[in-house]
Amino acid sequence: AVGAAAMEEAAAHNGSAGAGPGAPAAARPPATPEGMALAYGSLVLMALLPIFFGALRSVSCAKSKNSSEMPETITSRDAARFPIVASCTLLGLYLFFKIFSQEYINLLLSMYFFVLGILALSHTISPMMNRFFPANFPNKQYQLLFTQGSGESKEEIVNYEFDTKDLVCLALSSVVGVWYLLRKHWIANNLFGLAFSLNGVELLHLNNVSTGCILLGGLFIYDVFWVFGTNVMVTVAKSFEAPIKLVFPQDLLEKGLEADNFAMLGLGDIVIPGHWALLLLPSSLKKNTHTYFYTSFVAYIFGLGLTIFIMHIFKHAQPALLYLVPACIGFPLLVALAKGEVTEMFSYESSAEILPHTPRLTHFPTVSGSPASLADSMQQKLSCPRRRRQQSPSAM
């Protein structure tokens, strides 16, 4: 739920030096125009990377794997429930921070996301790292198997195959994890955030355009209500010590890597539009063109830029989905109207073209766009594009 948090100007990143989340804005000097331009430009670039590469990896993964290993699909019923469950989770987190000590809650969350971040980052860098291993590298195969019951009622809970190369990637990711756990540094936070975002785009799919409209429309209302209607979203986003947002310092030019005046973008504002772009990618490839996919990219950049502009005009945190949703739906729809393909666009089923027999999302993620739900999905399908893993859905 916090993953869909608004972009907030000069938000204090948790764990930064200087002032904590509750420090007054006057404690920091105003950001320079150059610093703000660098920060928001970097956020836009970082947001585009997991959408683009997550979509390409997802399509490549789907073409190379059998039907039993396909990424899970979000149906219309799942999409309609997303905002409701996300709202309950967000309100629950808000109450937890009000009732219990923020220090202890964030300690538990840090340990939780430490483990999930290592797994997500390892899965993200694994295909890239394979190019650096020599041909004679001693690569042994391993299998991690957990079962439940015995005899005919015996059921596999986890059946994960991995090798020595995977262990190397896991060790490298653990270094980043320890760095984040000890320092809460913004670079380590962003490495985990990018990994969560890429895995979220890659491993969860929308089944058709109507489902995408339901999901985006529901989260549009969710984001606007919790940012403008209450202070719940901003309060939780500033209190939540976890890599559930990308951050970039606006005072990087003045303070270097120790900068502490951050602009931020929630992961939900990346993953949700990323699902929409991925849905339009196979639709475009059907006609041997990337028209709708690139149109959604342009729409995303426009929506994010508009968010930043409005935020500086009104000097208030903005729900990014307020601008992203109309842009991401409106731009491709205008293209479809111009090409006379609106009916074809809404009747298109992604699973029928790229993802045949894609399994349905049988367990609804507890948090919309959150690292917890993304990492759970990742753990269920961790093998793409190299690994082969089968397990029954676990309770989220």
Automatic annotation (TrEMBL):
GO terms for cellular component: cytoplasmic side of endoplasmic reticulum membrane; lumenal side of endoplasmic reticulum membrane. The chain crosses the membrane at residues 37-59, 79-97, 104-125, 203-228, 262-281, 293-314, 320-338. It is found in: Endoplasmic reticulum membrane; Membrane. One of its GO terms (biological process) is signal peptide processing. Keywords: Endoplasmic reticulum, Hydrolase, Membrane, Transmembrane, Transmembrane helix. The keyword Endoplasmic reticulum applies. GO terms for molecular function: aspartic endopeptidase activity, intramembrane cleaving. It comes from the Eukaryota. Gene3D superfamilies: Presenilin. It is a multi-pass membrane protein. Belongs to the peptidase A22B family. This is HM13 protein. It comes from Chordeiles acutipennis.
